[in-house]
Amino acid sequence: MTPYQIHHLNFLKIAYxxxxxxxxxxxxxxxxxxxxxxxxxxxxxxxxxxxxxxxRDQGQDxxxxxxxxxxxxxxLIARDLLWYFGGSCLHNxxxxxxEKFQRLDEMSFEAEEESxxxxxxxxxxxxxxxx
Length: 131
Prior knowledge:
- 65% of the residues lie in helices and 0% in strands.
- By secondary structure, it is mainly α.
- The radius of gyration is 16 Å and the shape is globular.
């Protein structure tokens, strides 16, 4: 697994841990939909770790479901995951944010072409003005 993938896997784990600490997931009697969602999120993490399944499609579907079913909890999902899974997830991102992630991708490709090591987290901090 690449550092880039590990970065996103960690964001998935953080999202899972945040979701299970919030309503409706703290209720004793979860609805079938809520139970299925949290089960699917856990399975996505397991598939991602194992390198099995169609993680990109699963993730895209799950992120879209989260925004649709739990809009009050959508802020618990790292924006990086919207970019990582792409597709319909990008509808939940403003253009300026998409441009920043595109720049990150360009920086990564440039480093790869030049056979240079790419520190995604440092580059991300720079592009997003987090330094």
